[in-house]
Design goal:
168 residues, alpha+beta, 4 helices, 4 strands, 62% helix, globular
Length: 168
């Protein structure tokens, strides 16, 4: 079972990298977003080009190139540690979360290596969501939420069960 879960994590990571890079290729080279103004797709969803030299969602966005290589090394280190951990996973939700985080980290690392910054373009700011992001950022976020949910929900369930028993 553990090897199947590792394969699930690795396959999902591969899918995330391919989707992320394919969409970035299309947005940058086919659609030509860097040369266009923000463009409405549908309703509150727009495409707006942002070059992110910081971490996810533009946090610590630095104008200098100083953070580029340390962030590449950090992302690859995190992905490598998760690849190793994936061989020991025992729950499908962990395989999904680890796969999403690996794929997102590698997708953004590829951008930093190839482009010098991460290409962000998914814009929902008309819904008062202030960040412009990409598929890799989304995968990292969803993976992290699933990981935290797996860690906290059993504890919350145990706490609520103990609380309910203590009130009887």
């Amino acid at each position: 079972m553990k090897s199947r879960l590792a394969l699930l994590a690795y396959a999902l990571a591969g899918i995330v990298v391919v989707l992320d890079q394919a969409l970035k290729y299309w947005v940058l080279n086919v659609f030509g977003l860097p040369e266009r103004p923000p463009t409405e797709v549908i309703g509150p969803f727009w495409l707006s080009m942002v070059w992110n030299k910081g971490v996810s969602f533009g946090v610590l966005n630095l104008e200098s190139d100083a953070a580029r290589w340390p962030l590449v090394i950090f992302a690859c280190g995190v992905a490598g540690a998760l690849v190793w951990w994936a061989r020991r996973l025992d729950k499908p939700i962990l395989a999904v979360s680890v796969g999403l985080i690996i794929g997102g980290a590698l997708g953004n690392a590829i951008d930093r290596i190839r482009l010098g910054a991460v290409a962000d373009f998914l814009d929902f700011s008309r819904l008062d969501f202030p960040w412009i992001f990409n598929v890799a950022d989304s995968a990292i976020t969803v993976g992290a939420v699933l990981l935290v949910a797996d860690l906290l929900l059993p504890e919350a369930r145990n706490w609520l069960t103990a609380l309910a028993r203590s009130r009887r």
